[in-house]
Amino acid sequence: RYSSLHGLKQRLEKEPSQDKEYFQEYTIGKDAQSQNEYIRIVDHYGNVFLCREGPEINPRFQQPLVSTEDAESVGEETATKYGRSASECRGIDYVEFRCPPKTAAKIAQFYDSVFDATTSVVESNEEQVALIAFGPIDENGRAQQYLLFREASPQQPLPPYDGHHVALYVGYNQADFEQAFANAKLAGVVWVNKRFRDDVTDINGARKYQQFRFKDIIDVATGKVIMELEHEMRCINHSAWPGPKHNENNDT
Description:
This protein is an alpha+beta fold. It has 6 helices and 11 strands. The protein starts with 5 loop residues before the first helix and ends in a 17-residue tail after the last strand.
């Protein structure tokens, strides 16, 4: 989401068509329903970014930017190449994944049952989509952010899972985080990624690292794995939490 797409258009147009270092292709179009303009960018990994104009999602929760003065912590090359003092991007509305056919409802049930998430299943372009809500929900029933799981066509097999992951922050306090861990443990989905040092298998490890991981999204009725997607589930007391610190006795 951008306050204006003007600057993004200019940067994309400056990139030589024969030497696209940062992306594979881009197109400019309009949403069928709203008629609002968007820019669709495909990176070299096949990820699709739909950039639209809109207000800031929540200024209280912002990941810090890499600055040109961060050479000591991130390296001079990274700081010089990617360093910014500000960003035109106002936030991410949703991240969408393809899931196996006839599984959207089961995926919604998994997040609802294990993490008490607000979920729904809708039809979009004749496809079933599971919506997993994050953050406050407004008077119109819309959350600030979503994970979307859109059912793939039976004629288009999904590619093998390649290890991509998402990081999510849980609840309002330590108790919410520990309950999420207990639920994941009960569901049998707590998982350790050997690439990283946070080898969390019990509540003591979760408290130590202020996070845990799981990879399997399961059918809660049968225990069968529906799809794989690594989740890094963090407490708001995690050192990387981008928002204000919460008072343990105040959930607002």
